[in-house]
Amino acid sequence: MCMLVHMRPRNAAVTRRRILEHARRQFARNGYAATTVKGVADAAGVSPNLITRYFGGKDGLFLAATRVEIPVAESFDGDLSTLGARLAASIVGRWSGAPEEDPLLVLQRASGERPEAAEALAAFLDANSLEPLHRFLRAGGLDDADARRRAAAIDAFVLGVSTRRRFLRSELGDPVELQEWLSATIQRLADG
Asked: Above 80 in pLDDT, residue 22?
């Protein structure tokens, strides 16, 4: 007598994405040290061996889970006089999204535990926030030194608010009020 066993087809890309989703949530919620390969594997419904196979272990999983891509071009598409409103809308939208899966929040939480997380966060912010903002302000007519100072002030302000509201408190407050306040403050910093 022959018995047929129905098995779910394997799809490495889907499994990998599922592992990364659970890893992002756990790293964001618990930090690097408290997140375990077994915990992520259990949450994703896979064997811990798959995490080793796909990512090489916890460090590789962390690096993959914190890969950040944020389209910033639309925030810099427009006039300097409305920069604050565009940046604030983008920031609050991101923060109000799925915070438990936000790779930036994962990096921020892990930056105190892992030197490579702090390095990755600094490199990301330099490449995706500070430098594009500097170029935008310079293209808007500011001299290089002034554009660099204003960009650094905006970058530091946003990182400080992010740390205070997302990392230390895990609560944003009223998103409309937050967006209005961020918009006005960023615009003042941009205008000098």
From this structure: yes
